[in-house]
Amino acid sequence: MAEFEGALSRRTAPDRLRVAILNTCARLLILVVMATATACGSSPSGYRSSGTLIDSAYGGRVAIYPQAEILRERWFGSPALFSPPAIANTDIEFFTVTGTTQAELIDGLNHSNLCTTYQCLPDPAAPAGGIAWAIGGGFSSPGYYCYSPATTTPAFRFLVVLPRWSPTVYGGVKIPLVEKWNALEQVIYTHEATHVAIAAQDLAQLIDYSHNLASCQAVINFWANPSVFDSLNADQNAFHARLRADCRPEIGCIPPGWMGW
Ligand SMILES: [Zn+2]
Questions:
Q1: What totals of helices (H) and strands (E) does the chain contain, helices first?
Q2: How far is the centre of ligand 1, averaged over its atoms, from the C-alpha of 146 (Å)?
Q3: In angstroms, what is the span from residue 23 Cα to ligand 1's centroid?
Q4: How many whole angstroms from 7 Cα to the centroid of ligand 1?
C-alpha cells in the first residue's frame, strides 16, 4: 500500500548570479545604514557626508531604497522553518534538499530519488515516470499469532517521507524563499497526513471486520488475501481524484505554478 507523489511542476532558471549580487550589496548596505543613522541625529553636513558616500557607491540617493529592501529580506532565522507535527502511529523520515534559491530547491526535490530508496507503487495521480517530492505508505508487522479472531490485530504502521531543507542563518537565504518553502512543506505534509488518516480509518474497518470472523484460519485467509487492501487503495485514489477536481493548497494539492513551485 505504498504510494508516491509526482512532482507537479519544475522550473529551470537558476538564480545564482542574482544571489551573488545581493550578498555584495547587503554588505555594502551596512555602511549606508550606519551613515544614515548618524546623519539623522546630527548636523546637515553629516547628512551631506552620507549622501556623498551613497552617491559614490550607487550613483544616486534613490538607490538606498531597493538596497534596504534587500537587507530586510535576508533571513536570519525568522520566520522559523515549518516543522511537521507528529502523526499518530507514523514514522516521519526526511530527505535533504539544499540550495539558496527556489530553482535550486526544486532541482533538489526533483532529484529526491525517493522511489529508488523506497519501494513505490504506481500512483494514478502522478504522470508516468513522475518525480516524487514526498511519499507516504503503510506496512504491517511481519507476523502475528491468532488465538481468537476477536483478539487478533495485526500491527500496522505508517511511513511518511518529506523533504527537509536546513539553510544556515547567514547563508544568504531570503525570507520570501523561507515563506515559500514553509508553504510547500505544509501542503506536502497535509497531503501525506491525509493519506495516513484515510489508511488508518480503512484499516480500522478491516480490523473490525476480521475480529468478527469465525475462526483463526478465516482471519489468516482474510489478511493474506491480496485484495484485502483494494478498498483502501481505492479510497486513496479517490482522494487524488478529489484533488484533481479541486486542487487547493489547504487540502494538500499544489496548483500548477503555485508560489513558483
Ligand atoms: Zn497522494
A1: 8, 4
A2: 33
A3: 39
A4: 11
Say how many Å lie between the CA of residue 240 and the centre of ligand 1.
Answer: 6
Give me 184's grid cell: 510547500
- Is pLDDT above 50 for 26? no
Q: Are 95 and 210 in contact (CB under 8 A)?
A: no
**Residue 158 bridge partners (DSSP):** 90, 138
Containing 137, the helix (H) or strand (E) segment is: strand 135-140
Instruction: With H, G, I as helix, E, B as strand and everything else as coil, classify residue 165.
Output: strand
Sign of CA dihedral 253, 259, 260, 261: negative
C-alpha cell at 217: 484460519
Per DSSP, the residues of 11-36 read -----HHHHHHHHHHHHHHHHHHHHH
For residues 24 and 256, what is the distance between their CA atoms, to the nearest angstrom?
34
**Per-residue pLDDT tens digits for 55-91:** 333 333 444 455 666 677 899 999 999 999 999 999 9
